[in-house]
Amino acid sequence: MLQGPVQFVPSKHSAKERLNSWKEIAVYLQTSERTAQRWEKTEGLPVYRHVHDKLGSIYAYKDELEAWQVSRERKIQQEVPGVEIPSIGRETSQVRGRVWLGIVLGFLALASIPVWRDLSRRPIPQDALVVTPLTPGHESYPSFSPAGNQLAFSWDREDRGDLDIYVKPIGPGDPLRLTSNPADDLSPAFSPDGRYIAFLRRFPSSKIEVMIIPATGGTERELAEIHPLPNPEFFFGPYLTWSRDETWLIVIDKSLSSEAHSLYAISVETGEKQRLTFPPDTWIGDTGPAVSPDGRSVVFVRAEGSRRRNLYILTLSENFRPMGEPKRLAVDDPYVMSPVWAPDGSAIFFSSGEFRNRGLRKISTLAPGKFQPLASAGENIFSLAMSSDGRRLAFAQQSYALNIWRILLPGTSSGASSESKFISSARDQIFPQYSPDGNKIAFSSNRSGKLDIWVCDRDGSNAIQLTNSKRGLARAPTWSPDSRRISFFSDEGGQSDIYVIDAEGGEARRLTTSLGENSWPTWSRDGKWLYFASSRTGSRQIWKMPANGGEATQVTKGGGSLAFESPDGENIYYSKGRNNSSVWKASVDGNEEIRILESLADFDAFSVTHQGIYFVPASDGGEVPSVQFFDFATSTIKRIANMRGFFGFGLAVSPNGRWLLYTRHEDVGSNLMLVENLR
Questions:
Q1: DSSP track, 235-271
Q2: What backbone torsions phi and psi does residue 465 show, to the nearest 5 degrees?
């Protein structure tokens, strides 16, 4: 708590700039009424009372609140040497603009100046949407200070492979580093009074701690531990936010591994948890919470699958308990993520769109309907943050490539290098699989715009497109034993289902129509059956059905994500869980379960051959990912090779045992961008 009132110079004001209740004042300051009243008593918040006996008949002027808020933040920062806080508050409408984008780009090209610049010198047209780069490097998860003149964010500044928390003024001045733990520190969030920053600390073991640190640096405090998060590529944050009265943090957590991730409130004082949302256990769950300006609602993303998600709004009671079920905002767009509120609560900004094409959107909360795209903001947008006055919006913008690489396995000879880029394009290529005759490779790629199934020759040449998706994503192709058909899954029909197509092309045939997610098909060794994962009974299990379609039979009872039949056709090897996955063995009817491998980097990070299982184990202690081999004959494991940039999306071993294919994440990066004059 600041000691004594904040000093500021009152300015002249007009009646139209007056706020006439505690509620209006709290909304304007982006805090709760209780906190605003406390600030008046302890920190000199400029509030006036009418001269009569009506209780609560108070008023305040916007310009005085702005001056108080900026002065308050200056006082908080006085103890930090070397950090200059620019005089940025809520400018008048005549000086809302910032440096013209052309001038900024000209400076960058001609002078190689830092991209953090003073953005408050020249006006721009009121209706312009100016997007300015803020930082170079690998930054994400921005969070504005209450006055909107600073950003907290995660940054791998030293390119060591771990993220730390930094605070940076918008304008001149170096960033202040708050954390230096070798673990990843991510998703920072300023407290409503600007004194603290909460964040998550993710260890190589997947353990995650909820931490709080003073916004000016100092001693950290661990508040709680939460369950490991799903793959961030499909479950973007932010992962926590504050209540407006600063007594609670909303985080992403779950109490059982079998549950979906849900929103939980954690007491800032005691660390006590209370569950707020209850998504179906077969779904990925809830993420991206943002508390409304009045503190009585929270918007979040509910993910049924990696692509199918929507915005929901949950109403909260005064003691921060859920009131009824959350209300769904029908956003007819894939990969919805990172919602933030407009200052008056009338709209929500978020990002959505096809994989690698996520853009900035806006939807009304007063009359929900179709969202409004803000196309000039760019693509590959995630992790939004809104300033309290609504004039600034920050976001992270990704840049990366997903290509298929191959490794020459030990015991073989070739003129090629031991590891090389194999299938690439200007877009993404994932899920490689060799045909059993060794002549072709199937994979998924969005090189034509949508994620479709492609086939190329075994040397990577002559790629042809098999499917032509209109609205869905075609993923995870696998070959029939005779190399004549390819199975895959897609949500082209509105939900995830299993399809089969001839390897030479033609129409794909849909084989499943039941409710629930049906995905990750593989063939039996005799070609008569398809194994697949399904949530049709409420939990994710392995099922099988005739390869030409027909009634499906449940195989596993204790969970399953991806299954391969053994070379002799008597057993299946399958993974359990989407996080902390392991590999199990069971008979083809699902009996006699035995754990074979303790951990996988991802549930699809293994491939079954006649001699054993190639797999990528979960990273331990920050080591470079490696491919390893479990030998069926000796039940021993040996390390085969390092796999820099391994991203998941399956492994594939050539039928002759010479080559292994995998998907590599290349040129990974994300930069913070600033939108000015947002309307």
A1: S----EEE-TTSSEEEEEE-SSTTSPBEEEEEETTT-
A2: -90, 125
Give the C-alpha separation, 83 to 565, whole Å.
61
Q: Are 197 and 215 in contact (CB under 8 A)?
A: yes
Burial 10-49 (b: 16+ CB within 10 A, else e): eeeeeeeeebeebebbbbbbbbbbbbbbbbbeebbbbbee
What CA–CA distance (Å, rounded) separates 89 from 77?
Answer: 15
Task: Specify which of 401-415, 504-518, 569-583 reaches the highest per-range mean pLDDT.
Answer: 504-518
Which residues does 102 contact at the CB level (< 8 Å), separation at least 6?
none
pLDDT greater at residue 555 or residue 34:
555
Beta-bridged to residue 29, according to DSSP, are: none
Output DSSP code: residue 246.
Answer: S
**Domains contained in the chain, CATH given:** 79-400+669-676 (2.120.10.30), 425-437+462-554 (2.120.10.30)
| pLDDT, tens only, 665-678 | 776 677 888 888 77
The count of C-alpha atoms lying within 13 angstroms of the C-alpha of 458, restricted to the half-sphere facing its C-beta, is 15
450, 469 in Cβ contact below 8 A?
yes
Number of H helices, E strands in the chain: 4, 49
Q: Which two tokens stand for residue 130?
A: 């100016």
What is the helix (H) or strand (E) element at residue 29, kind and residue range?
A: helix 22-29
Q: State the average pLDDT for the chain.
A: 81
In sequence order, the 6+-apart residues with CB closer than 8 A to the CB of 383 are 140, 141, 142, 236, 237, 238, 338, 395, 396, 670
| Tokens representing residue 273 in the block | 């948890």
Supply 352's token pair. Answer: 């959505």
DSSP structure string for 665-679: EEEEEEEEEEEES--
Nearest of 26, 121, 114 to residue 676 by alpha carbon: 121
- Which one, of 402, 401, 361, lies nearest residue 378 by Cα? 361
CB neighbour class for 487 (10 Å; exposed up to 12, middle 13-18, buried from 19): buried
Rounded to 5 degrees, φ, ψ at 338 are: 55, 55
Alpha carbon distance 294, 304 (integer Å): 29
Angle between helices 62-77 and 22-29 (to 10 degrees): 50
Top-ranked range on mean pLDDT: pick from 12-21, 53-62, 391-400, 666-675: 391-400
Cis peptide before 230 (omega within 30 of 0): no
Question: What SS3 state is found at 75?
Answer: helix
Between CA 277 and CA 322 the distance in angstroms is: 8
Between 6-20, 58-72, 377-391, the lowest mean confidence (pLDDT) is in 6-20
Burial of 101 (0-12, 13-18, 19+ CB in 10 A): middle
Contact predicate 10/46, CB 8 Å: yes
SS3 content of the chain, % helix, strand, coil (to 5): 10, 40, 50
3-state secondary structure of 403: strand
Question: To the nearest 10°, the Cα dihedral for 164, 167, 168, 174?
Answer: -70
Higher pLDDT, 313 or 110: 313
Q: In what order do the strands lie in the sheet with 273-275?
A: 240-242, 248-253, 262-267, 273-275
Return d(Cα 241, Cα 586) in angstroms, integer.
Answer: 43
Dihedral (Cα; 423, 451, 519, 358), 10-degree rounding? 120
How many residues comprise the chain?
679
Judge contact between 451 and 469, C-beta under 8 A: yes
410 CB-near residues (< 8 Å, 6+ apart): 640, 641
Which element (helix H / strand E) includes 607?
strand 606-608
C-alpha closest to that of 480 among 430, 431, 521: 521
State how far the Cα of 409 lies from the Cα of 44, in Å rounded to an integer.
Answer: 71
pLDDT digits (tens, 9 = 90+) for 35-54: 788 788 778 888 887 654 44
